[in-house]
Amino acid sequence: MERKGFSWGVVLGLALLGFSRSVGWALNKGLSFPLLSSYTESAFVKGTILAAEGLIGLFVPVLLGYYSDTLRSKYGRRRPFIMLGGLLAGIAALMIYTAYAMGVPLWGFALALGFFYLSMHTYTAQYRALMPDTVESGQRGKASGIITLFEWAGNLFLFGLAAFLIAKAVAETGESEGIKALVQTPYLKIPFIITAIFLIGAALFVYFVIREPKAPEIDDEESLWEYLASIVKKRDFLKFYTAQTLWWMSFEFIAIFLYGILAYILKGSASQENIKAVTSLGLYLMALFNVTVLVGSLPGGMIYDKIGRRLSIILGGLVFAIPQLWGWFITSQKEIVVALGIAGIGWGILMAASYPVIGDLLTKFEREAFTGRYYGFFEATRSLPVLLAGTIGGAIVDLADDNYRILFPIGAVLVLIAMPLIWSMKELEVSGK
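The line above is the sequence of Transporter; the predicted structure tokens follow.
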């Protein structure tokens, strides 16, 4: 495949796309749970609705990633999917707000969320595949660090914006419950409008500005089922995908149920009133977590190319897991802040070090023409945890008499199980690492 050396223009263009997508996912993480709490208090029902993202992401990126590898058009293999997905995702973000503002029933609001998830996953694999398509293997750690930095900066931007708007709404209305105050003001629409602008604008920018390398000629094209079977046959792919599923499930336990965790620890129960009362704090803590992810992401990308692939991933995993073990004993807001801050640094290292793995394995096995399908499966193993964490996490909380704290140690164990899988990967390292 034709590929130029490291290009700041291409990497920053991809970083902008990553920023916009993270703004979209942060909108979902930051506001969907408290808005759903207006419909139901059941952790299982809310978790199951949010888990639809995982169900959609389990299939759509795999299929569309595969077909993007085979696409031959003058507009490239990835960019048509990126433009279509970005446009639909922006429209879907506006639909979520409209559905809630119009007072549609729970099933209608859930359908709006589902359309948003489908739109976002329409171009997930293509966005991921475009980096290894355009960046040489030895430079992917640096590129991943920059892209990861922008991705989590997008989360930080949205969480910070939402927290600011809630604080402003509380001050104007005198309402103590943050999300309730936001709903009573015109400010609720602002995050959705800004998200739509970013999603549509970034997709159009990539489509019209970034140029893909010429698509390689594929002499021995594999069928969809042959591709899926090849993942099982190549043990390093299987080990990595399994490990990624485990650590993302750990992350999603916290991301999906953070408001419930905060309400339980700080107020004694995760009632609808208590969850609404901690919404503003939750958004600030999400912003804090993303700040520390930024701190970990750039060095995480650099050490990937310096100290070795396996060691950098394990370092990030351990720093992420240890604060979760402590989470079982946390009783105060200060302790929550410290734990999430440390975990964020580990998560930033882990994200920057894990993103380039699939591209490097494809280089190792001389399968670089197939980045779309393999990054499609990469995204499926990030989506499966949303499905599992939403349903299983909600069920665990219900069985534990609404004890949301239990999700901390379970998440830590999942990360620790993933680390031996990474260490046992035989083909991950490059010469001298």
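Note on the example: Residues 12-209+223-423 form a domain with the Growth Hormone; Chain: A; fold (CATH 1.20.1250.20). The chain is about 80% helix and 0% strand.
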